[in-house]
Description:
Blueprint: E1 3-6, H1 17-32, E2 36-40, H2 46-49, H3 51-56, H4 59-70, E3 74-77, E4 90-94, E5 98-102, H5 110-113, H6 115-127, H7 131-166, E6 171-174, E7 188-190, E8 194-195, E9 198-205, E10 208-215, H8 216-219
Parallel strand pairs: 1-2, 2-3, 5-6, 6-7
Antiparallel strand pairs: 1-9, 4-5, 8-9, 9-10
Helix pairs in contact: 1-4
Amino acid sequence: xxxxxxxxxxxxxxxxxxxxxxxxxxxxxxxxxxxxxxxxxxxxxxxxxxxxxxxxxxxxxxxxxxxxxxxxxxxxxxxxxxxxxxxxxxxxxxxxxxxxxxxxxxxxxxxxxxxxxxxxxxxxxxxxxxxxxxxxxxxxxxxxxxxxxxxxxxxxxxxxxxxxxxxxxxxxxxxxxxxxxxxxxxxxxxxxxxxxxxxxxxxxxxxxxxxxxxxxxxxxxxxxxxxxxx
Length: 230
């Protein structure tokens, strides 16, 4: 049994071409090796781009997802940027390892759960397709990361671990913070996301989890912006 968990791709019409290529290559390779894929939220940027526009800009990714789904090897959890994408959580029984929880984790984000975070989320949902709002949101995120990124990630991990331990999971795989994390013996794992020219993900089998990545060099080219071709 081999399960691959990935997410936080935020694919939209404005994504760099290489992001679509990396996502499609990940899905295609997973299918070729017979793995089950769990997409753990924020795969498409539905919040700012709109569901139809985001998917239409990446037909190759959508086709690869559909191929896995037809074979019964695609599971999807929702994120805060694609709330209609799937379930709140996915539980997988891995022989030799135990019950594994896969959830996006946005509910554990201290900023997202705050009054300011809820206000920002409401504004984003109503006006997020406006370029000015998208730009302001990106600046705010960059500022928060620069000021308190490590502290926020540490608190996020602790809150996720409370859930994992309270419900008796062997492991919890989360996303949302866009920062990969896997430490031997730690029951909190984060698959990271699609940043720059690298797509990070988590592979799970009876021997345990591994943090892996797919680079632009492995799929070739693609530095431009704009929709994916074919």
